[in-house]
Amino acid sequence: MKVMKLPNHLEPAQLWDSVLKVQTFKGVDTKILKKLFISEASLAILQDCFWWWFLHKFKPDQAEQDHLFDRISDSFVALLLSTPSFIKDPFFQMYPDCLSQAIYVTFCEAFPESRLRFTDEFKEELMDLVFQWIRGFKPQKSAWKKWNLFWLEAPLTQTQKTDSLHKLSSLKLQNSVIKTRSIGKSWSRSPIADQPQVHFQLEKEEPKEVEVTPKKKAESHYIGDGPDFQRSLFNLGGQSPLVVYYLKMHGISNTLANMRAYRINHIEICKVPSASPTYRDAIAESQKIAEKRHNDFLNFEHKCADELAHLQRQRKKVNRTYKRMLATITKKRTESRLQTESFISQRETPKPCHSASTSASTSTVSSAAEDLP
C-alpha cells in the first residue's frame, strides 16, 4: 500500500528527525524511541495525517478523508503492535504531541510563504484532532506553546511579510490542485508505476540564511478568574478511537466492550479566559505610569527652578537700582543738607506781596481811628 508523497520533495523521516532533536526524553531508551518514530508505520501516519488535515482545512472531500482515515487506523494499529511493551506507555504518551509538531513542521516546510496562515488557532485545532484520534480526549488548552520549534517561529522580515500577505493563497498547487480521482488512484493498491505523478509548483523566493538565536519567552499568568471546567465520564478500560475503528472496519469483535467499564470523572477545560492582560503586563504598565509621573515631576521641578531663577534676577535688578539711587542721594551730604534747609526756609518765609497789603491795611485802620470824634 503506497502512501502519497509529501509536497516540495519533503521526506517524512527528516521531518521526524527535526522534531525529535528538540524533544526531551527522560528515563527511556532514546535509540528505541527514535526507531519507533521513524518506523514505516509512523512515517505512513505522518504522511496520511498531513493529507487528511490538508483536505479538511483547504479542500474538503469526505470520501477521500474517510479513505485516509482507514489507512491511518491501519498504520496506527501496526505501530501499536510493533511497539515493545516495556516502552509502550512512554512512547504513546508523547506520540500525539510529537505527531502534531511533525504535521505542523510539514506544513511550514511545504508552504513556507503561507506561514501567516498557520496561526495559533490552526495549531490548536490540529492538536485537538490528533489527541482525540489517539487518546480519545483533547489536550490541555494552548499546549502547543510548549513546542520548541524556534527555527520556525523566527519573526518574518518585512519583505517576507509582504510576500506572505500577497500570497496568502499560496497553498494553491499551481496546475496541480489535488484531483480527487487522481488521489483515489494513487491510494489504491496498484503498483507504484501506475500511480499518477503530482507536481507541486510553489512560487517562492530563494531561502535566505538567517541566524536564529533561540530565546525562551518568560511566561506570566493572566489577571482575573481562572478557566471554566466541565466534568465528563472517561472509560478507564476504553481503547484508542483509531483502534476501535480498526476493529469495527475489519469486523473484529471487541472483547473489552463486553467487559465491565470503569468510568471516572474526567475534568476538562471548557472555557479559557483571555490570555491578556497578564501580571507581567500589569507590572509593565505600572512601571510606565510611574516613569511618566517621575518625568512629569522632573519637568515641574525644572519649571519651578526656572521661575525662581527669574525672580532672583528681578530681585537683583531692583536691588541694583535701589543702591544706585541711594548712592546718588548720599554722595554729597553737605550740599544735600543746605538744599534741604534752603527749601525749608523758603517754605517758612512770608511772601512780599502779602506783607505790603498788610501794612496798607494797618495804615487805613489807623487813619480811620484818628478821624473818630
From TrEMBL:
Look up and give the organism this protein is from.
Podarcis lilfordi
Region (Disordered) residue ranges read 337-373
The UniProt family comment states: Belongs to the FAM227 family.
Q: Which Pfam families match?
A: FWWh (PF14922)
Q: Which InterPro entries match?
A: FAM227 (IPR029417)
What is this protein's record name?
Family with sequence similarity 227 member B
Which PANTHER family is this protein grouped with?
Answer: PROTEIN FAM227B
Low complexity: compositionally biased ranges: 355-373
